[in-house]
């Protein structure tokens, strides 16, 4: 789970083509179906706060949780510029704590893929269940086995005057673990380039595994859909999972 440290320096630059506004509208449309249009909402793996800011602008009172202090530092800078009242917490989502409950919990940009153990997925869902209002909604996305297979073992690189990167990707189809080594060269103020190296792992969970984890956690599995809201298939690259709160488990038993 120790990722996005040096990457935080250039994350927004490298994610410029991500359709954040489209994702924000998709999620808010889904939440509206359950009568959730405002109130407290938690984003797990909020990163640099781009989506957190968008959801706050939609009328939600946002809380952002992320394990990377560096990513949160970028998020706080955005908050200072926008003047929004977003609460950011530097916590591991496998152990996060809130002071009360929220109407919805969301987790996007394949954050949940970083849970490479099934038991961790169950535990996160248990925590979410405990911090949701009665009948609250948990919505998160996952890159799929189909997506990781399409990337396979490839290398990617890009460069401009300020940042260069090399991305070596590898997907173990048997274990369904996607790993990538990221090498960054970032221009400093004196025009020299500093090198940073990171290693990331993500797991491709099947929809059946996710359903089992959600039900084992005590939540109700509602649906697995694609970006158009249709039922996900074996060819879906990114699946959106929707679950509902169902009762509580004493926190000390988690």
TrEMBL record:
GO molecular function list: methyltransferase activity
Methyltransferase domain span: 42-136
UniProt keyword Transferase present: yes
Biological processes annotated in GO: methylation
Cross-referenced Pfam families: Methyltransf_25
Keywords for this protein: Methyltransferase, Transferase
Domain of life (superkingdom): Bacteria
Matching InterPro entries: Methyltransf_25, SAM-dependent_MTases_sf
Protein name, UniProt field: Class I SAM-dependent methyltransferase
Organism, scientific name: Anthropogastromicrobium aceti
